[in-house]
Each structure stands twice: as structure tokens, then as C-alpha cells.
Amino acid sequence: MLWPGCQEGHVSRASRSHRYRIESPLPVLDDLRQRRPNKRNRVEEVLRVRGFRSIGILLLAFWVGIGLPGCHRASDPRPNLVLISIDTLRSDRLGCYGYDRDTTPRLDALAARGTRFESVVAPANWTLPSHVTMLTGLSPHTHGVVRPDVSASPRVRFLAEYLAGAGYGTWAETDGGYVGAAYGFDRGFDHFADDPTPFADKLARALAQLDSGSPQFCFIHTYDVHCPYVPSAEFRGLFRSEGSEFVETEGRCGNPHFNGVSLTAGQVSYLSDRYDEGVREADHDLGWFCDELHRRGLDENTIVMIVSDHGEELGEHGQIGHERTLHREALLVPWIVFGPGIHPGRVGTTVGLADVTPTILDLAGLGPIDVAAGRSRRAVLRGTTATVRAHPQFSESSDGCSLVSVVADRWHLIVDRDGGRWSLFSWDDDRREAQDLATTRPDRVRSLLECFRKDGPEETVQALQTALTREERERLRSLGYVN
Length: 483
Ligand SMILES: [Zn+2]
Fold this sequence. Notes:
single chain, 9-stranded mixed beta sheet, 17 strands, globular
């Protein structure tokens, strides 16, 4: 069993075409059974067009003398691009997103110099599909990597492949698990390592890579904030809630009910404190990294993005972790961008992680590309526009079957497909999603359900079976992902 409560039939290829089937007396819900004609053809067309474009980019790179990866011109004006994913970092635990604890003094200062997207929705509540979306711009339904036993098809092009083809040096180090080579994350990288090494060490090696010449694309990923919430000794005990009670965390990750442990309020506070300390530690490492960028003069030509793949529930709706929940604490993540030419400001419009790849490609000078889900946000980052067009943001749960949600116009609808129920929350009036308005606002329910039918995620077109090594399975087990 890979995911508690997930039935095999729910994630089979055959059943995936019915992911949004919901039994309902409302006619509009019945419409969700209908798939738009030729969706599959549309997605394949997008991928085919993108394939030709990448060949064109490669030919152009040779023509202008940029050449192959590793052959960078000293006078190349294109910026270095650094993408840092702090796994499981919910945005509301950062000071610059309104948290009242001093978890992120360094990031708060960095965010004030750049652009902060206030409302960023993860496409899934777990690591694998969300990172593939982040690094391809494709929705989970399009890239198809929505189960632990599949990896991305070669037809799915990753961000690093585009950038390598355009002459960027490409370097990545991740903490492995679901962000490993086994799932295709190494594609396009000159250097890729997926060993669980300290975040600070990865950042130090990234600095050395940036020192070696530009332009570079560096991707760094860490599980430092992830369960089992064990910060370094230097940060342990930094935060202490009143009434906090110790609870063992090892071996209890990956289960929304903490492996059957009935937690007291004090124990939930204990977990929340340790989580915050992990955030503070990551903030410390990021601060050091940016100090070093400045000391080495790299900050003059390096744009840095801080993101996460999903959030974390810490007792708000009766669970611990990010499994089997699509509430906002599990979906809303930070997206902070700073560096040369980045306009200081805040973006209130809700955007999605699928926007990361087209935005980075646009900043690299490759222009906006046609991808199924993401949109470039370069214009707002450069300050040439103050408006960001809103689009519905869709998400799905870790078991790949039971929960789906959509955010539109600051309303959030969570649909429990198995139970045939739904919940509605107003993000303007209810930041904790404590009041379900589904029965009092059927008009909103109806319009959000309509979003699924009109703009819902594309049909899955590719995924490959993948075989994990013993070491990879052990890594996932330590994070609570497999039994
Ligand atoms: Zn994750």
C-alpha cells in the first residue's frame, strides 16, 4: 500500500478519465462527467509544438555562438537563475506573509526588495506531481506523474532541458525521495545529485557553480522543513508555545493522523513549534546564501526564486501533514523573487506553481512558451505591468483520487469525490477555512463546479512506470511516504 486509503482502482489509467466524476443531483455536476472532445489531441499538439520550438532554440543558440552547455560566453548578459524549493513550506508561516512569529527575518527583508506573490496555489498536496508541475509548467493531468510508480515521459520537457538547449549551465542538487533522477528530474542538468545532504552545503556548492561562469540555472531542493520536524540543535527550542507537550515524530510521518496517535493540543503545539524552527533554520541558510551572493558580486546578475511544492497542516482541520487534505494550509506556498531588474512589489492575484517554468524561461530571454497550465509572470516581475490576469487554480490530493479543489475569485471549493460532498470557503473572510459556506452559497458552488467543466485540468497523456532502487525506497520510507 502506497497511500493510506487510496484504492488501486482510483489511480488506474482507465479510471483517470473519470477523476472528476461526482454524483450529484445538480445538473451542472453531472456535466463534470463529460470530457471535452479532442482534449488529448490538444495536449499532444502543445507538446509537439514545444518540441519543434526547443529544436529551434538549440539551432538559434549555435547560430549566435552560445553553443553547448558548459561553453558560456564571458560577455553573455543573461542572468543567472536560482530556483530554491523548500519542501512543505506553507506561506502563512513566513513573516512577510503575515505570520506573527519571527520565523523568517532574512526572507522578509529579501522579499521587500523583490516581488512577492501573495497567493500561490500548489497543483497537488504532495511532492512528486507538484514538483513536476513546477519544473515543466504542465498540470498534473498533462504530465501524468501522479503516482509513486510512474515517472515523466521523455515527451515531457523539463525547464532545465530548455535552458541547457539555450546555452545555460544547468546544475541541481535535491534531497531525493520524490525529487530524484528516478522520476526524471535530472533531465537537462549538467550536474544532478539527489542525496540528502544539508541545505547549507547544497547552497555552498551552488555558489561555487555560480562562480564558475554565467549564465547558470541552479535548482536546489531541501526537506529541512518536512516531517519529522527535526531542526538542528542551534534552532531547537527557539519557539515554545504555552502548554507544549513532547511527542515522538520519528516513524509517524506520512499519515494524517500521525499513525493513529491521538494528539493533545499541547502535542500539536509542540509539532508546530518544531516546524517553525525548521522554517527559521532554512531562513538562516538562505540569508547566508544571499550574503555570499553579494560578497562575491554575484547578486548583480543573479535572480533568486524561493518556492515550495505544497504546505502542511498542523492541526487546523484535525490532521498533521499534507495527506488527504486540500485546505489552504496544505496548498498555499510562497513564491518570492528578487534580484537585478525585479520590481519591488506584491501580487495579490492568485497564481499557480505551473507559472514558475514559463516565468523563468521568459526571464532567460526565451519568451513565453505555450504550456498547458502555466503562464509567464515576467511582466509583473519587471514592473512593466501591475495587473496579473486571474485563472482558476486546480489541485488534487495525494491519493490521486479522492479530493479535488479549485480556487477562483478568492473562493475555494473542495470536492470529496468519493463521498459526493463539497465544502466552500471564502479566502477574503475566513483565512483558516473554519466556516463551510456550501449550503448558504449554492450559487458559488455552482459556478466553481462549472470551472471544472470549462477549464478543468487536461487529460493525462504520459507517464512511465518507474522502478525505485532499495535506497530510493528507504529515503521515501524515512519521509513517511511508503510502508
Ligand atoms: Zn513535498
